UniProtKB/TrEMBL annotation:
This is Aminopeptidase N. The keyword Cytoplasm does not apply. Keywords: Aminopeptidase, Hydrolase, Protease. The keyword Signal does not apply. InterPro entries: Aminopeptidase_N-like_N_sf, Peptidase_M1_pepN. It comes from Mannheimia haemolytica (Pasteurella haemolytica). GO terms for molecular function: alanyl aminopeptidase activity; zinc ion binding. Gene3D superfamilies: tricorn interacting facor f3 domain.
């Protein structure tokens, strides 16, 4: 599946920023595992969803401040977190994924 174009005219200031990123790669020619640890800051107190764009990977798990987190939806193009019940202004996300490094069209982007 081809990713959709992101146009400058559609830009709006982000509701969240990511201040720190830690990536751990377990490399393998057929299946590479990636653990992403993100420090997220809510810039808009009214924001209730965080969408993480990406495709061509297998989503394995999600943790919020070290605890399993299940308030999300996954489709072919993104992972959307429902943060309506998350009071924190600053929090940690840990996302585990797997991908096939032979695929040359991998793209991940945070929205």
């Amino acid at each position: 599946m081809q990713p959709k174009a992101k146009l400058r005219k559609d830009y709006r200031a982000p509701d969240f920023t990511i201040t720190d990123i830690y990536l751990d790669f377990q490399l393998d020619p057929d299946r590479t595992f990636v653990t992403s640890k993100l420090t997220v800051v809510r810039k808009n107190p009214e924001a209730t969803t965080l969408r993480l764009d990406g495709h061509s990977f297998d989503f394995l798990s999600l943790k919020y401040n070290g605890e399993p987190f299940s308030a999300f939806q996954k489709d072919d193009e993104s992972l959307t977190l429902n943060l309506a019940d998350v009071p924190a202004e600053r929090f940690e996300l840990e996302i585990e994924t797997a991908l096939n490094p032979a695929q040359k069209h991998l793209v991940t982007r945070f929205v």
